Records
---
Amino acid sequence: MAKTIMIQGTMSNAGKSLLAAGLCRIFHQDGYRVAPFKSQNMALNSFITEEGLEMGRAQVMQAEAAGIAPSVLMNPILLKPTNDVGSQVIVNGEVLGTMSARDYFKYKKKLVPDIMKAFDQLAEENDIIVIEGAGSPAEINLKTEDIVNMGMAKMAKAPVLLVGDIDRGGVFAQLIGTVELLEEDERSMVKGLIINKFRGDKTILDPGVEMLEERSGIPVVGVAPYLQIQVEDEDSLTERFDRNQEIGQIDIAVVRVPRISNFTDFNPLESIPGVSLRYVKHVGELGNPDMIILPGTKNTMDDLKWMRETGMEAAILKEAARGKTIFGICGGYQMLGETLSDPYGVEAGGSMKGMGLLPMDTEFAKTKTRTRVSGVFRELEGEMSEFGGTALKGYEIHMGETVLKEGAEPFTGIRDSVSGTEKADGACRKNVCGTYVHGVFDCEGAAKAMIRVLGRKKGIDVEEMTGVDFASFKETQYDILAAELRKHLDMKKIYQILEEGI
């Protein structure tokens, strides 16, 4: 059976996912078979495996760092919030149902057998399992039924490294306070402390490190720097949304709808030199972009209502009439149509008018489409002709079925890798287009084609603004992450903790 080590944090966004990915890469580089694991993940960024099963993207990122294919075993429970008090519950990659927070709290202990079955299978196949916690282990209201922090550490017999975020301040109180709020048996499982996201001269921090070790009786096994690593973010706590940047030669605005999902779709575009990709929440932030993207969303109808209420829809319609490129993915694609209907109450129920930019209708079905796809962009007239024949691959996660009407052309031709069927996907009319395919820009050719379209409309030469092979780019980022962590973590001590266990 595999040896285990667990990364827990003092709060959400302390850097658990990235540190877990870095350890996965280090262990992989050192010749071990390593896999990530997170028993319960709450995120709207999800992924479809080769088997057509859904899992959180953080564990996909960590699997890439570990040099292995993602498996739903790495994330047996995924919660996708549908509103402020409820989530869609996905178990072993398939939808169990939608539950309120209170109902799920009462139910989740029943999922322990699913968690342990997945964990045990991974443990049989690997040398090391790097487990990630969620939020904080010191949430008093959640501890009694915990299945993701200390509850998981106990089930997996995993020593814990506790991570605090110094960038947001109060890291000493974070770490000492969290340790003090743990039960005695839980406290004994914490074998190391990590200060994360540090900027500056570490020698200034040394007295604080000594105090931490003295007060807690737990060694500090590293002070990790604030890293500008471009890997995929787990959820809406991403710093991408609040990033201030200069407007590039090509400026792209992504509408930050309240239930935005799978915003990792746009990472390949923002990695191109000369491109600024901004997330905008208010009409005043829209500016004068070259393209507006409507992203995926967990609640298409409610987010379209939000766009109407805030004036964002009116602003986008105005930009579309001026000839600006409007691009929708998944839920954003559905919004571009003429009607949205929900006869089974999958979202809000009833029906509503769409934005009317594409002649098509969408009806929400009872079952979710979950599959991986590959294919090519179709040969089209007009500005989107740059895409013709370009390869694409990605995945679909949606409840809606969309039917095109006269005046719209399918955007892509794709093959469902799970069922083997071929089908047309998406729609295009002049400067407005959309697709159900997540990861549509991951292939270098697709990102380049999009930039060529925008550059030609703007009358600028974009030949120097080359895209990247995003898969290769991510590999270099994981190597940089591992190299930096080796410099700043006491890997000898971490290996000792791994060997000794609890």
---
Amino acid sequence: MAAYSIKDIAAALGAEALGAADLLVSGVAEPAKAGPDDLALAMKAEFADGLAAGQARAAVIGAGMDWQALGLEAAIIAPRPRYAMAGVTAAMDAGPAIAPGIHASAVIDPSAGIGEDAAIGPFVVVGPGARIGARARIASHVSIGAGAEIGDDALIHEGVRICHHVRIGDRFIAQPGAVLGGDGFSFVTPEKSMVEAARESLGTVENAATDQSWTRIHSLGSLVIGDDVEVGSNATIDRGTIANTEIGNGTKIDNLVHIGHNCRIGRDCLICGQTGFAGSVEMGDRVVLGGKCGVNDNIKIGSDVVAAGSSKLFTNVPSGRMVMGHPAVRMDLHVEMYKALRRLPRLARTVADMQKAVFKSDKTP
């Protein structure tokens, strides 16, 4: 296992190293579980309390913390500790063990292009005309469809499916089981369906044909993913119907997220686990959607929107708004609504007492 000096880690982070800066560490750990060769992550006072239970000689600590009083031989002072944690973990992460070159069991179409220094693992299938960038690392059982393009420095974990003609930028990361560019879920009936009638009438359905079958609308568009995008395990992103589905640069997509056909997602968005998008959603930049959010079809979400977990977005959301609830409303309004909801039982008892008093007074001579 590789070892790193405290001074080199601090230099990579742009942070300050104190004490025995030449001390070597080979891993990171929580303070109470750290061994003598681990760098403990004790960025807050409550975390530092665990150092006494562990064996760490060095730690990342926050500004103003006394490393010597904590019994450390060396420390890295991080003004923004959680940001420093990103750098430390990146330096320590060797990633999956994928041997250089192309594994003998991989099936690469002769017309496919493989970039310089790419590493392709066992049982990978690369279709005709596909292009894989330089230094890409592709783990076992990945399939890459005909005409797909993947940029430089990609890391594609086990079992990822990249469908035909999908285009992906540089430094892409896909976690195991992600499916990118499958057909959209788009079907139509010969006559107006119950779904259309219900939407138009808001539930008062009239004159809708019921004895009919669904006919597929084929997906002729593709999926275009920008640079520095990450997609989590078992996430799915559908290709477009006619136009492309698009994911902007720097966007991070968590496990089990579904993004439907024709969606256009902006730059540097954060989409948390189990969030689902219906089709044709337009979303701006730097949007954060908490876990289990639901996004209705054909709506627009502005930039810098934050939606709390389990929010259901049924209508357009203007830029900069923070929303919560089902249906999603402004966070401050939702808090007031929730407070009012909690007061309902007491209000009901008050109304019942008033009714009794009124009925009683009616009977009084």
---
Amino acid sequence: MTDQEPLRVLIADDDAGMRTVMRKIIAKVEGFTLVAEAGDGKTTLELTEQLKPNVVFLDVEMPNMSGVECARAIQDMDPAIVIIFATAHDTYMGDAFEVYAFDYLVKPFKVDRVIQTLERARDRLLRRDVRPVGAPVPAVPRAAEGRLMLRHREGVSFIDLQDILLVQREDRATVLYTADGGRYVTGDSLAEMEERLHSDAFFRCHKSYIINLNHIKDITPYGRWTYVVRLENTKHDALITHEKYEELERMFR
């Protein structure tokens, strides 16, 4: 990993002693660097927006904003950020599921448990251990047809629907990526874009992503409750929830 930039980690916990423990654990794992610590939810979001970490450890109960509320806001900034809850309360696991956390650690946890989670997160972020889940997803028989008129700051663009690979929330905006490397930012919400992408080729796989089924390369595990969808002709990928993955399987039976 000498030629690989270390992955950036942010720790958010109102307990200074626990931040010290997490800091020491992170130092033990190759490939990570701690970029910041926060003791409340508001500071966590400010640092996340400023430093753009790859991994955020979140306590659940923090001043100014809970860890779950922080996770929702972080997803709207960048849903690719790995969120790991580290909390003394096991009653929030359902909430963690709703924000698609990578893992949920209950204090007091063993050091080895945190190290394993970090190693899995590192492998996922560096695109290692990409084992497909089940059989390859076949192509959709009917390709997308028509064009999309997209309004944005620079004016209006007309995009062939079949060229749209991915639509996602990014930096509190909606972004479209196309097969020719194009990137288009629009003020439309993801729900509004879903309504406009009426073709059967498009699938809302996650609250932060819409994918073109014609361009799926493979699907691999990600954390406890989600999978990663890799797409052809782009370095960008998407998340898909367990429920949506099962729905996708039914579509291709």
